[in-house]
Amino acid sequence: MLAETSAVAGLPANPSQPLYIVWKPEYNLGAPILDEQHRGVVSTINSLHHAMSHDTGKSVLRPIIGMVKDYTDIHFRVEEAFLAEFRYPGYGPHQELHNELRQELDKVGHDSLWHGDPYEFMQFLRTWWLTHICVQDRLYLGHLLAARPQASSR
Ligand SMILES: [Fe+2]
Ligand SMILES: [Fe+2]
Q1: pTM
Q2: Which CATH number is 47's domain given?
């Protein structure tokens, strides 16, 4: 009876269930807007995982998948604009990494997600993002911090 009620309402059976990706302080780069957006991307992935885990149906999944794609693209555009503005030497290869994920996400529709193993896709997203944030994004950090305009020169 209780499970039935939860399923109908689309509510989690256990609201204290841990998040799929728990944000850790060591994921922060120290660049406020980029850190905020990284947490935002992780938030969209957690929402997708929650929806999949609780069988919320396609009407809910469709906008969440769209949210993951759109927010990922928003973040990539903002980050690439910084890298271009500050003439990061690794801009091309970094953008290529972003484009690879853009292409992967383009393949994912609310139907195609279910043709494979959806949890494999979730694991792919988790590994991709944690590696990207903790390794690849960290590579440009020194360049951005060194190249940023100094307050005294304005
Ligand atoms: Fe990046
Ligand atoms: Fe990033």
Answers
A1: 0.85
A2: 1.20.120.50
